[in-house]
Give the backbone structure.
Amino acid sequence: MKEKKNLWYIFFWLTLFSIIFMLVNSSRQRSHEVDLEYSQFKQYIRSGNVSKVLVSSGIIKGQFQDSDGVLKKFRTVPMNDPNLIKDMEDNKVLEFSATDKNGWIGPILLNWGPIILLMLFWLWLMRSVTGNGKHMMSFGKTKAKIASNTNLKITFKDVAGCEEAKEELQEIVEFLKNSDKFQKLGGRIPKGVLLFGAPGTGKTLLAKAVAGEAGVPFFSSSGSEFVEMFVGVGASRVRDLFDRGRKSAPCLLFVDEIDAVGRHRLSGIGGGHDEREQTLNQLLVEMDGFDTKEGVILLAATNRPDVLDPALLRPGRFDRQIMIPNPDMQDRKAILTVHSKKVKLDGNVDLHVIAKSTPGFVGADLANIMNEAALLAARNNQKVVNMKNIEEAIERIITGPQRKSRLISKKEKKIIAYHEAGHAIVAKFLSSSDPVHKISIIPRGPALGYTIQLPEQDKYLTSKSELLDKLSVLLAGRVTEELVFSEITTGAQNDISKATDIATKMVTEFGMSEQLGPLRFSNNSANSMQKDLVESDLNHSWKTFEIIDEEIKNIINITKNKSTEIITTKMNIVHKIVDHLLEREKLTGKELDKIINGESIIPLCHSL
Ligand code: ADP
Ligand code: ZN
């Protein structure tokens, strides 16, 4: 605060000083000049004493010889005098001219303008450096858009799918609705909630819906808006956002792309980015400084939770994190339903078919389909949107600039389904393997599909047979692809790297190779095992290295064979799992058990 005042004093004195300087300077110039009456001026002309005349609008200047014969400058105010020129000619005025520059302000501005501008620029820099964003201009104010509830009628109904997220956010809604009641009950509410998920999965929409459901104002801003060129602007914008929030509590603050400010402080080229760090610090300070009692809740969204500074995720800050998944087929259909309300659909349009043919699409893509289709229909002067429009729209979006990699083709989907079914079936039929919790062929992050196994209890020791089974499960995806399609893909890359790691550790760290015995051949447990081997243990003979390689290969071969054996004998079940996966894109452990036992599982409800 004090700093702010000082700056203002400096500004004030500088301005005063420069004005005084300008006045003194100009009056000094004027002091050389004699002020003449117009009549005197004419007299001097007639007496032949004027040697120079310069006429400009509002003033006449020149040189004359006074009665003592001294050459002096003069100035006078011009009058409407058509004879002036004739008089001057007649009376031997040597030089006379006219100009359209007026008086002394022009030259002064010309001389001083750049200096004044420089001064203003310097002041502006000063204030942005010290982060004083309040008074001068409105530079540094948040661009937070105030969207009050009256014109923002978005509720949870407008957000299809994401049921789990909605359930979690319901608590925030209740709190914002009647914060007094909540506090009396002693309920603890998180200060900040972090929504994370792929772009276009509806994070912003959900945030708006929370505000809409609770009927409170919604202030949104984006992390990238905070990080500006000038140091201090971001911090002052953060301050401003929170100030606004406090003034209109209860309300919801939303920061999109929080990773733009919240990136891990040590990450990034060059280590530090002053502006971002300052902004992040301000954000942390504001979060620590406000109390949920005030009725303000901060929601933030990111698609990169992994790069966030851990300080942001500490208790009392974004201590609640909600994942917004990519929509599965049912969700996609629901999203399409929401967005098809705005357009007139032909009777032949089947949203289920569209949902089925758009694996990998997120909410924004689906909304886009409906938009594009409506545009296409309008272009053809159709009254309703038909299936052909929608198919064309899908194609446009797939081949569009951003979404190229999103859509998974039918063929790919089938390969992914077999790959995951392979993992699942091997996990199921190996005694030391953890139970399968979930199989999914909905892409998540870099993975095209995934099979999750969860241990029945916490484990601190892992046996050799458990590790071997783990390897069999890891290799099962590739093995199934090979068996079914007689062709292998890059999809198993991650499995293979994990398997290599485990097998290498078994031989070089865990002493699980019979041929080599319980000896350690590696320096540490870093991933780049081979390098460490060569660099740190050159005292081992090349023969030993060869045996290590051989043992690792052996382990992989044995487990791969085991995998192949299980999959071959259970191939009919694998086909069944794949059928179900293609239909519903994900299966729970229980559903998997039913399929294996030949029981039927609850069919999908097709008429949503
Ligand atoms: P994000 O913030 O995750 O990038 P947005 O919330 O900006 O995504 O979503 C962009 C648009 O996509 C929304 O305005 C909405 O039209 C559509 N959309 C995304 N997800 C959904 C959903 N679950 N239900 C309905 N529409 C959605
Ligand atoms: Zn795999």
